[in-house]
Amino acid sequence: ARALKAKPALLTAIIGDEDTITGLLLGGAGNVDGKHSNFLLVRNETPVPEIRERFEEFTSKRTDIGILVINQHIANMIRGDLDDYNKMIPTILEIPSKDHPYNPAKDFIMNKVAKITGQSFD
Hints:
Elements: E1 11-16, H1 18-26, E2 39-41, H2 48-61, E3 65-71, H3 72-75, H4 79-84, E4 91-95, H5 108-117
Parallel strand pairs: 1-2, 1-3, 3-4
């Protein structure tokens, strides 16, 4: 009989504000090892190039990420990178934050679905 080799579980990466990071880490989504973590805490002083660099790391360089959760107001800072992203894994999930409401017209996935179905948000 052949032994089945289990694939390692994929992690959820997070790029978010303090409340989002805290909530998801308390929910068990955090992972820190000797090399890296699976989250980026974005504050007002966090430079956009750092956000862009971590987005690139989570979506292109690491193979252990299955989902990237990002606050929509932070995603707006790197919207061009999201618009250019075309892979299925990791899947990108834009979520609202306590201080910034969700806008489906700016959501990366909603725009792709609208384009495919010929819908618009007007």
